[in-house]
Write a structure and sequence with these properties.
74 residues; mainly alpha; 69% helix
């Protein structure tokens, strides 16, 4: 019997490290689902952070917004 590890590999990639032993009982399909959910959460967090940075720039005078964006890496 061959065990697939695509889900475990995807989760390890999302975690940027090894998969915790506590998740060993989960099937590979569930690990893949968890990896997908984690990737989606990271994407939402990045979008929310970018939106928050744009919102904060509203309080900066217009002439200074460009330099502030460059300084923030936005």
């Amino acid at each position: 019997m061959t065990t697939t590890t695509a889900g475990r590999d995807a989760l390890a990639t999302e975690l940027e490290g090894p998969v915790p032993e506590a998740l060993d009982p989960l099937a590979d399909e569930r690990l893949a689902e968890l990896a997908d959910l984690l990737a989606a959460a990271k994407a939402r967090q990045a979008e929310d952070l970018a939106a928050g940075a744009e919102e904060a720039l509203r309080f900066v005078p217009r002439l200074l917004r460009g330099p502030f964006r460059r300084a923030l890496g936005a």
